[in-house]
Amino acid sequence: MSGSLSRLRAALLRLPGLGSPVWAGRPLSQAAAAGEAGASGGDGGSGGSRDEVERLVRAHPVVVFMKGSPAQPLCGFSNAVVQILRMHGVSDYRAYDVLQDSDLRQGIKNYSNWPTIPQVYLSGEFVGGCDILLQMHQNGDLVEELKKLGIRSALLDAEQDQDKK
Amino acid sequence: MEKPVESSIRSKLQQSLEPIHLEVINESHMHAVPRGSETHFRVAVASIRFEGMSLIQRHRLVNQILQEELAGPVHALSIQAKTLQQWQENPSLGQSPP
User: Fold this and answer.
1) Which residues form a coiled coil (chain A) (predicted)?
2) pLDDT at residue B20, rounded to an integer
3) Distances (CA, A) of A97 to A41, A109, A125, A146, A164
4) Residue A161 CB-half CA count within 13 A
């Protein structure tokens, strides 16, 4: 696994926006109990009730609860999730920034009984955080799970291109 | 007792999972926290207890064992949970991002 892991890391590092400052410099990544107060600006009103969270989880086939936005992740682990999805060509997904909504931040942890952010949901089902998505990427499960959603992973096309050459 | 959190993580995992292999790595120095902090950890556990469990079940088990730490001092926990067979096939620990 370490081989594929380092390959992924190398691939991730080649992608724009994923320099070491993002990885190394951000505190509270994949945070459980964070010191920073989340609700600054943002909608603030989505609330953290189970019904409300359920609605968000089911709002799209691919949903990510993260810190920051896909364009500007504010945590290395959230960034890794964004980059993995990008490698698979998944551009159409719903991302919620829990730093914009402290109720949601706690609500999603309660909903999934999972202590950390990011959290990934496929078809409304909790899949895991960064570690699990990374391992699913490595062992091929992610390609299969995306297929179930009718999403063809871009990595398959990349492999085909390789074969042609 | 310079590393109370690390010690506690180690002993709890040791006790609950009786691992074949256990690594607890304090990665706090890679983050913007004061020197000597115990906030960011990576654990690699290989245990026969994980046999037949999905990844998510294994992670849930580790999270549950360390729930006090996660609710308190620990801000980030990266987990690698392997079965005996997986560990024997590939006895290595993934490295943290640079």
Assistant:
1) none
2) 95
3) 11, 13, 19, 23, 40
4) 5
Going from N- to C-terminal start, the domains of chain B cover 4-88
Give B42→chain A minimum CA distance, Å.
11
Structure tokens at A163: 């074969």
Structure confidence at residue A27 (pLDDT): 36
**Contacts A4 to B, Cβ<8 Å:** none
**How many contacts does A have with B, using Cβ atoms within 8 A?**
90
pLDDT tens, position by position, A66-80: 999 999 999 999 999
Q: Assign A25 a pLDDT band (cuts: 50, 70, 90).
A: very low
Q: Which of A2, A9, A135 sits opposite B97 (nearest CB)?
A: A9
Q: How do beta strands B21-26 and A62-66 pair? A: unpaired
Looking at residue A8, its pLDDT comes to 56
Residue A165's pLDDT band, with cuts at 50, 70 and 90, is low
- Whether chain B has a CB inside 8 Å of the CB on A135: the answer is yes
Residues of chain A with Cβ-Cβ distance to B95 below 8 Å are 2, 5-6, 9
Contact (CB, 8 A) for A69 and A77:
no
The residue in chain A having the minimum alpha-carbon distance to the alpha carbon of residue B37 is A27
Nearest to A2 among B39, B59, B90 (CB): B90
pLDDT tens-digit map of A78-133 = 999 999 999 999 999 999 999 999 999 999 999 999 999 999 999 999 999 999 99
Q: Does domain B4-88 have CATH number 3.30.160.70?
A: no
Going from N- to C-terminal start, the domains of chain A cover 2-28+44-164
Residue B69 structure tokens: 């730490």
